[in-house]
Amino acid sequence: GAVVSQHPSRVICKSGTSVKIECRSLDFQATTMFWYRQFPKQSLMLMATSNEGSKATYEQGVEKDKFLINHASLTLSTLTVTSAHPEDSSFYICSARDGADMNEQFFGPGTRLTVL
Amino acid sequence: GQNIDQPTEMTATEGAIVQINCTYQTSGFNGLFWYQQHAGEAPTFLSYNVLDGLEEKGRFSSFLSRSKGYSYLLLKELQMKDSASYLCAPMDSNYQLIWGAGTKLIIKP
User: Fold this and answer.
1) B54-76 tens-digit pLDDT
2) Mutating which of B5, B97, B104 best tests the A interface, going by the most A Cβ atoms within 10 A?
3) How many CB atoms lie within 10 A of CB B22?
4) In 10 A of CB A4, how many CB atoms?
5) Which residues from chain A sit within 8 angstroms of residue B43, using beta carbons?
6) Distance between CA atoms of B73 and B55, rounded to whole angstroms?
7) Which of A66, A85, B39, B104 could lock onto B9 through a cystine, CB 3.0 to 4.6 A?
8) In this model, does residue A89 exceed pLDDT 80?
9) Distance CA B17, CA A110 (A)
10) Between A and B, how many residue pairs show a Cβ–Cβ distance under 8 A?
């Protein structure tokens, strides 16, 4: 199956700093990428959907100025958590969809963010 | 609205069979996925059903009834490594996955 990577897998940062998370599709072109957040023992929450070359579509309640998403190429999307605070500590997961197959999403391994 | 209903937690014995049920309501429907998620890890794909009936894949089988908004995941010959959360995720008319909290499956020796 298709492979999606995320980097870094784990990051610890101080409050007020910004953190960038990369999501790459390794063997296919991802026309659409999704960014999720998951708090312990809760369901995945879709934060935003990004299509290559266009602005991301954010879900209700997600601040677009705080969670900057860039999908500049068909294999790379980035999520930047700006001015991170302890309440932003979570598990961030990206998934990617091949434009040729609208039905399947391939998940990255996730990034564990801890804000001190 | 859109919602998913799965049991919060189930317990089964190693070597046994367990069925995890899921009922759903979505705006439109483009199939239903089952994912496995171990603690601290991202979900991994198990199965996809778009037509009614049973799909078998090794020890795992998944069933779908679109008219009833119902699916189940059947796990046979349970192994300790099957202890995980199992997520039922239907896809709506916008090709977005709808997520519930999943079912935590505990396997006992």
Assistant:
1) 999 899 999 999 999 999 999 99
2) B97
3) 26
4) 25
5) 44, 93, 107
6) 10
7) B104
8) yes
9) 30
10) 43
